[in-house]
Amino acid sequence: MPKYTPAPWMLKFNADNQTARIEPSKELLAQGRGHIAHVYKKDPLDEGYANQRLIAAAPDLLEALIGMVEESQWYRRDGLSLINCDKANAAIKKAIG
Question: Taking the model in full, what pTM does it have?
Fold first, then answer.
């Protein structure tokens, strides 16, 4: 498995309420790990806000996708399942290299 910061990733808004940071768990922050990302937004309904939430969910999404692909190996029988598994495997490879 790659060496990315383990979940959970938390979304924290800065005092200006225009930027947010994605940071690791309190335990990892206490160990000296820094912020994962800074994301800018203009209002809660804009693309920046959606990006912040997506970035914060990334490690959880990756873990869930890996689990689904591993479990689906037993059930892949129709073409649609194979196509979806190929797409999932491509996304996993993109994330972990």
Answer: 0.74
